[in-house]
Q: What sequence folds into this?
């Protein structure tokens, strides 16, 4: 599988360890940066590029997922979710990693590098990558509603105030 990855300065060492882990597991890793430590770097472009790469690959039929890191993962998740077609979930335990895939068909996850050990992050990532979307109708319906709103600003049959 192709894994798109991005971070900010807070997650740079974290990202390097996790990229090695992913490559050792046979994944192709695309690193969207940063490449060097800069304490005042700006994460949005890195995370947006990772999300764009993930979505573009999936639209082209390439099996791909994305992972973004930062101090908390919050801003990185928000940046990734600005990309049309990205569904980035903030993951903080195994359960949220499972549910991100099972129920939300998330194509990216965000992890707080200052919140977790590298071993915890590896567990979350491995869980996320190996878990398929359940395909249950109720979950597919809700994801379709999110996509519809993203594209049109409305959800047919549902009032949006």
A:
């Amino acid at each position: 599988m192709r894994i798109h990855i991005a971070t900010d300065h807070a997650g740079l060492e974290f990202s390097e360890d996790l990229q090695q882990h992913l490559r050792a597991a046979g994944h192709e890793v695309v690193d969207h940066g940063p490449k060097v430590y800069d304490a005042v770097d700006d994460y949005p472009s890195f995370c947006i590029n990772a999300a764009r790469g993930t979505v573009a690959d999936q639209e082209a039929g390439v099996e791909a997922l994305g992972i973004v890191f930062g101090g908390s993962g919050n801003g990185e998740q928000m940046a990734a979710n600005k990309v049309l077609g990205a569904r980035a979930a903030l993951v903080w335990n195994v359960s949220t990693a499972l549910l991100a895939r099972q129920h939300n068909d998330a194509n990216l996850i965000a992890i707080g590098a200052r919140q977790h050990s590298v071993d915890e992050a590896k567990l979350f990532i491995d869980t996320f990558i190996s878990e398929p979307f359940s395909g249950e109708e109720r979950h597919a319906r809700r994801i379709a509603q999110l996509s519809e709103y993203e594209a049109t600003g409305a959800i047919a049959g549902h009032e949006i105030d």
Remarks:
- Residues 2-133 form a domain with the Ribose 5-phosphate Isomerase B; Chain: A, fold (CATH 3.40.1400.10).
- The chain has a mean pLDDT of 95.
- The longest helix spans residues 43-59.
- The radius of gyration is 15 Å.
